[in-house]
Design brief:
This protein is of the alpha/beta class. It is built from 11 helices and 14 strands. The structure holds zinc ion. Zinc ion (ZN) binds next to loops.
Length: 311
């Protein structure tokens, strides 16, 4: 194992190797837990790197337990688990899946797709949020079961190729570059490069129609910063924080459902007339949290460097 790996990278590789317990998820390099500092407060809520990771991942049970599959808006559906997002976009010429999650979740995603009344084998295109095992470990199995064409942001390809559950080669049929589109049956998705969390982290956008109106749907990539921020990563994050705030957005979604309060919105879906997933006021909520954490980590890193003994 490469000891130079940053805690986040190690966490996801541990997960890809099947050690995906919450204990493993919350531990970084050398078995140390994710630090509980610095603390940032955004909209009256306090966060630490540890609490954000716990919010995202939940328990091992949360990561693998089906969340009731549901329509989000128009032709966009949720088919993931309690804490790992997977989205289905339905078109007359077949369907698009964003995120296979862990390989062991693929049968659960399949069940969700079928419970919504669709065929798993109608998935013609497989896309991904970013090259970590909790989002894209199951790609080879989805490809095997559906024959879907797999698209990947070019900058994420090396990290994707390192995700090989059971030794299976990671499928990549077509590389994408920032701003390129993927279309099927009248639906077009735009791939926005929003690097930092991984080099090819991809924020997908599309338009959905409901009750005669068009809505901008944003499938946000993770903006969660690593503990050790190199100048290159700082540049990537600065670019991404700026870019995500420029994207037209009515329906914010994320790679972990807690980022867009899915459970709460799903609960309201049952009661209310208006679609709770239409939530433009919270389009930058996750970016606000992660950007605050990014600056707090940078400040902490700077303090540590200044306090380090001079050689
Ligand atoms: Zn990740």
């Amino acid at each position: 194992m490469d000891r130079t790996l940053r805690p986040k990278a190690w966490m996801c590789i541990a997960a890809a190797m099947g050690a995906g317990t919450s204990q493993a998820q919350n531990k970084g390099q050398k078995g140390q837990p994710q630090p509980d500092h610095p603390t940032v407060t955004v909209q009256g809520q306090s966060y630490t790197p540890r609490s954000i990771l716990a919010r995202n991942m939940g328990t091992p049970e949360d990561q693998t337990t089906q969340f009731p599959p549901h329509k989000i808006i128009g032709n966009v559906y949720y088919v993931g688990t309690r804490t790992l997002s997977s989205f289905l976009i339905v078109t007359p010429q077949g369907n698009i899946l964003i995120d296979s999650t862990y390989e062991r979740n693929v049968p659960t995603i399949r069940k969700s797709v079928e419970q919504l009344g669709f065929k798993f084998t109608d998935i013609k295109i497989l896309l991904g949020n970013h090259a970590h095992g909790d989002h894209q470990e199951g790609d080879a199995l989805v490809k095997k079961l559906t024959g879907a064409r797999v698209f990947a942001m070019a900058e994420d390809v090396p990290a994707l190729q390192a995700i090989k559950p059971g030794g299976k080669k990671h499928p990549i049929d077509q590389k994408l570059h920032d701003g390129e589109t993927v279309s099927l049956g009248g639906t077009t998705l735009v791939a926005h490069l929003t690097p930092g969390h991984t080099h090819g982290c991809t924020t997908w956008t599309t338009m959905a129609q409901e009750n005669g109106k068009s809505y901008n749907v944003v499938f946000n990539c993770s903006l969660r910063p690593q503990q050790a921020l190199t100048p290159a990563l700082v540049e990537e994050f600065n670019r991404s924080f700026k870019l995500v705030r420029t994207l037209p957005c009515d329906v914010p979604l994320g790679d972990h459902p807690a980022q867009y309060n899915m459970q709460d919105k799903y609960g309201r879906l049952q009661k209310e007339g208006a679609n709770p997933f239409v939530d433009p006021a919270h389009c930058s909520a996750e970016a606000d949290i992660e950007e605050a954490m990014f600056h707090a980590l940078l400040a902490e890193q700077k303090r540590e460097q200044n306090n380090a003994p001079k050689k």
